[in-house]
Amino acid sequence: MAAGDMRLMGMARMGGQMANMGQAMTQTMSGWSLTTFILMGLMWWVMMVGMMVPSAAPMILLFAMVTRKQAKDENPGLRIALFTAAYLIIWAVFSIAATIAQWTLTKAALISLMMVGTSCWLTIGLLLACGIYQLTPLKQAFLGKCHSPLSFLMTKWLPGNLGALKMGLSHGAYCVGCCWLLTALLFVGGVMNLFWVALIAILVLGEKVMPRGDLFGKAGGMVMIALTAYMVLPGSLFS
């Protein structure tokens, strides 16, 4: 009995320590220290690289091929690296903005500490906004620059290392303009939900590389609008 009492006391202490750890994590996440913000920003950037680089690969490969032919006696590797780094820098800037949005939504209790949306109206608003944006001429203009690497290089080509840097920044900006609302849907299904991340990545990749990617993107937008309509209908699971 004495031994049993000691075990129970040990389990109680362990439970208390776990509760204290959980409370500390909650306070850290809700308080968002500088370290937390930096780690969240890095998480967003790594996620954006994983989601966007596959769809940007045709552009990077075409730029590399053209650069190697034009700069045989110079340093084509440096220009290719500058182009790619500039593209990733744009997504790093976007990741900072996404981290600020996550902090704001967390403070407003619209997403949980596990980074999943807790408000049906946030879900409805993001789905509807993204669905409508998929159909707008602005979205199609951005998508056109991302969908046709050859057209981009023919109209935006700049010589030299500085030109490669500016072109990478320009292409990154077009990609952000094309996909920023799609990435905002991570707040709907969960920022750490790998299935949801993969689903959005497939939509991004499809609309950028498929022969009629614009139609694929528009179809995705109409599905989002239809899902929004269902969610607001009386008697639905979300009404």
Q: Layout of SSEs?
A:
Layout: H1 2-31, H2 34-70, H3 76-107, H4 120-134, H5 137-147, H6 149-156, H7 160-184, H8 186-189, H9 194-209, H10 213-232
Helix pairs in contact: 2-3, 2-9, 3-7, 4-10, 5-7, 9-10
Whole-number average pLDDT? 84
* DSSP helical segment count: 10
Q: Could you list the spans in which at least 5 consecutive residues all have pLDDT below 50?
A: 6-12, 14-29
H/E order of the elements?
HHHHHHHHHH
**What is the molecular shape?**
globular
Specify the structural class. mainly alpha
Features:
0% strand; 2 domains; mainly alpha; 83% helix; 239 residues; 10 helices; single chain
Polypeptide structure, described:
The chain has 239 residues and is mainly alpha-helical. The protein has helices at residues 2-31, 34-70, 76-107, 120-134, 137-147, 149-156, 160-184, 186-189, 194-209, 213-232. It folds into two domains: 1-30; 32-232, no CATH class. Helix 5 crosses helix 7 and helix 9 (194-209) crosses helix 10 (213-232).
Question: What is this entry, summarized?
Answer:
The chain is mainly α.
